[in-house]
Amino acid sequence: LSVEKLSYALSWMSDVDNVTGGQSRDLVLQPAWDYLHQNHHDLLRSPLFPVVLSVSTYFFLVGLYTVLDLLAPAWPCINRYRLHPDRPVTWPNIWTTLGVTIYNHLLYIFPAAVAQWLWRPPTPLPREAPTLWSFFLGILGCMVVFDFQYYLWHLLHHRVPWLYRTFHAVHHQYNQPFSLVTQYLSGWELFSVGFWATVDPILLQCHCLTTWGFMVFNVYVSTEDHCGYDFPWAVHNLVPFGLWGGTPKHDAHHQRPGTNFAPFFSHWDWLGGTHTVPHLLFFTL
């Protein structure tokens, strides 16, 4: 799907809701949006809010997974869900990846956030909330576009040796990922990911509430992809037919880097011949 077609679909569904399902706007998201609008208006309008939302979501999730990593060796009820239960995450692993993450935030994200605060106008907050349908459809549309963008970026940075050595090799220093590896990245990769996550909702003309929902979900699934756990409630276990890559497939990518390039869905790897079935890979290693 092109960006134009996705944008048209979102606009069309919004028009349909106005004619046939307008009451759902008031019954579902409108009360929550009214509360946010009335009580946190200045915070939500701030250009810093999306950055704070994304960063706080990331460190909250990483903190939870790191606690699980530290408890797993002594708690079989946790360790049984790890993809590599015989290879615990160590404190040196944690400090190394956390150090690079903090370095990147101080060197790249903090200056970008200050620049947004100084030069970007406040976010306009519409009085009406998005319909529940357009909210979820907008998030799905952003995920589809982001997935295609990163698939091409990822494939290119593996196929061109100079790009891999210069920008992406740092992320592959760990062949059994854990949550803090999610942003164990070069500055260029961090910029690319952040740029698409910011621009895609604008291209699809999403409501700001939909934009924030996409940002939170994007951080959640990115962290889950690297967490090293195969929980029953993981997205890849909820989406049928193997359409979602998830933790096992991305873990397989870190062990065999020529496979499973897409960050979320599986269709681009199927079409590109880069798809690998994780359990067969683990069996052969």
From TrEMBL:
<dbReference type="GO" id="GO:0005506">
    <property type="term" value="F:iron ion binding"/>
</dbReference>
<keyword id="KW-0812">Transmembrane</keyword>
<dbReference type="GO" id="GO:0016491">
    <property type="term" value="F:oxidoreductase activity"/>
</dbReference>
<dbReference type="InterPro" id="IPR050307">
    <property type="entry name" value="Sterol_Desaturase_Related"/>
</dbReference>
<dbReference type="GO" id="GO:0008610">
    <property type="term" value="P:lipid biosynthetic process"/>
</dbReference>
<feature type="transmembrane region" description="Helical">
    <location>
        <begin position="48"/>
        <end position="72"/>
    </location>
</feature>
<dbReference type="GO" id="GO:0016020">
    <property type="term" value="C:membrane"/>
</dbReference>
<dbReference type="InterPro" id="IPR006694">
    <property type="entry name" value="Fatty_acid_hydroxylase"/>
</dbReference>
<keyword id="KW-0472">Membrane</keyword>
<feature type="transmembrane region" description="Helical">
    <location>
        <begin position="93"/>
        <end position="119"/>
    </location>
</feature>
<protein>
    <submittedName>
        <fullName>Cholesterol 25-hydroxylase like 2</fullName>
    </submittedName>
</protein>
<feature type="transmembrane region" description="Helical">
    <location>
        <begin position="131"/>
        <end position="153"/>
    </location>
</feature>
<dbReference type="Pfam" id="PF04116">
    <property type="entry name" value="FA_hydroxylase"/>
</dbReference>
<keyword id="KW-1133">Transmembrane helix</keyword>
<feature type="domain" description="Fatty acid hydroxylase">
    <location>
        <begin position="140"/>
        <end position="274"/>
    </location>
</feature>
